[in-house]
Specification:
Elements (H helix, E strand, L loop, with lengths): L18 E6 L4 E6 L4 E7 L4 E6 L5 E6 L4 E5 L6 E6 L4 E7 L9 E8 L2 E6 L5 E6 L2 E2 L6 E2 L4 E6 L5 E6 L4 E6 L12 E5 L4 E7 L3 E6 L4 E6 L4 E7 L10 E5 L3 E7 L5 E6 L12 E6 L8 E2 L6 E5 L6 H4 L1 E6 L5 E6 L9 E7 L5 E7 L8 E5 L5 E5 L7 E6 H5 L4
Antiparallel strand pairs: 1-2, 1-34, 2-3, 4-5, 5-6, 6-7, 8-9, 9-10, 10-11, 12-13, 14-15, 15-16, 16-17, 18-19, 19-20, 20-21, 22-23, 23-24, 24-25, 26-27, 27-28, 28-29, 30-31, 31-32, 32-33
């Protein structure tokens, strides 16, 4: 649908900033759920095995990227929301992001491909490819030639009109400047920073420090996006997998950021404020012991006292069906519980996500395609179950993304 034919205001009376986009992984669909009413609004077709959803800068659009390389733009102002643009810039992909710097909101998008290995810059409203850049590179800029340098995580800087693009196998983070793409010749300067091998998931600390997990070498790499410099390297646990990580203010350590680890039963908490708390900056201030390994996602919200972790990759059915809550002040596990009904459905609880106000925690029961499961909603203070979203459509639910929190990097 051409941008000029799209609505100029929301065509429904719903609180669209509190919508959730729920990935239905093996059906190649995304469900749009009203976060206030906890009811299904619509289901839209997307790429197969959708990996993530990213909100555009304004939050109006969800961008989906499938492991079949298909990118979809979902307009949340339509009644009901629907896909208004799509393209297939790769054969396999796992990352997508919009331009978020002031003056460039929703103007561009970028897709990180696993195969073939380029990054592809798209028009943010039509998904028309504008620039394709091969990521065939050299290990840390001067080593062996890497012909399969896959693009892992991508985020949009808050300080400059650029994206942080991570090359997994070559161990580089590229700072990609999109501010000149509308000029003749579409110039696109790229600053290459040699970081570490096997870059994977990432997140923001203080919306300034970009932290990415080099998970095969058990490290966290920090880049200061204000100065555009390599800032630090931190030893994490075994195979850190932050998703986007979690941020909160600790009474002693100041601002901290945390990651879970797939290969070790711990949450690694790192100090992240070199200006006001330099004694803790880029140091592990606490390794919080967990009862299980194979954590995949960790999430919190400023309005909640808890950090929530899952264990969907655990070989133990009990662990995979369980969640834990960490007290943000004591940095201790306060409660772990098995979600009723998950084991019976052979489901793994995955990807906690808060609603816009931080009053609820939503978690998916990831089961088989043949059997419907559920999405459970908890009170973000008491941790008591408030609701379950069920239906024949709830099949292989994995990641879910709140519009407001995703658009404004609240985690």
């Amino acid at each position: 649908m051409p941008p000029e034919k799209r609505p100029t205001r929301p065509l429904h009376g719903r609180n669209w900033q509190n919508f959730f986009g729920q990935v239905l992984r093996d059906t190649g669909q995304v469900a749009i759920i009203d976060g206030d009413k906890k009811e299904l609004i619509t289901i839209v077709p997307t790429g197969f095995a959708t990996h993530i959803l990213r909100s555009s800068a304004t939050g109006r659009y969800f961008m989906a990227i499938g492991r079949d390389g298909r990118a979809s733009l979902i307009d949340l102002w339509m009644n009901p929301p629907q896909v208004v643009a799509e393209s297939k810039p790769c054969l396999d992909a796992r990352s997508i992001e919009s331009s978020k710097f002031k003056g460039y909101e929703d103007k561009y998008a970028v897709v990180g491909c696993y195969w073939p290995p380029p990054m592809v810059v798209l028009d943010g409203l039509t998904l028309e490819p504008l620039k394709m850049v091969s990521t065939i590179s050299y290990t840390k800029g001067a080593g062996e030639l890497v012909t399969e340098a896959r693009v892992a995580a991508i985020v949009a800087s808050h300080f400059n009109p650029e994206w942080m693009v991570n090359l997994k196998e070559s161990g580089q983070t590229w700072l990609v400047d999109y501010s000149q793409l509308d000029r003749k010749g579409r110039p696109m300067p790229i600053t290459m920073i040699d970081t570490e091998l096997f870059l994977h998931d990432e997140g923001w600390a203080l919306k300034r420090y970009f932290i990415v997990a080099a998970n095969a070498v058990n490290k966290l790499i920090v880049i200061d996006t204000k100065t555009r410099e390599f800032a630090a390297e931190v030893e994490a646990g075994v195979r850190p997998h932050p998703g986007r990580g979690s941020n909160w203010e600790h009474p002693t350590y100041g601002p901290v950021w945390a990651t879970g680890n797939i290969g070790s039963p711990e949450v690694t908490v790192v100090g992240v404020d070199p200006e006001k708390h330099p004694q803790y900056a880029w140091k592990v201030v606490k390794r919080i012991a967990l009862p299980y390994t194979r954590n995949l996602f960790i999430k919190t919200h400023p309005s909640s006292p808890w950090v929530i972790v899952d264990f969907p990759m655990s070989p133990s059915p009990q662990a995979a069906a369980s969640l834990c809550a960490i007290d943000k002040r004591t940095l201790e596990v306060a409660k772990c519980w098995e979600v009723p009904g998950a084991q019976e459905l052979k489901a793994r609880m995955v990807h906690p996500e808060f609603n816009k106000g931080g009053t609820e925690i939503w978690v998916s029961a990831w089961g088989s395609k043949d059997t419907p499961t559920f999405i459970v909603v908890y009170d973000a203070l008491t941790l008591k179950e408030k609701a379950r979203i069920t239906g024949d459509w709830v099949r292989t639910p994995t990641g879910k993304f709140n519009v407001y929190n995703t658009a404004y990097d609240i985690y």
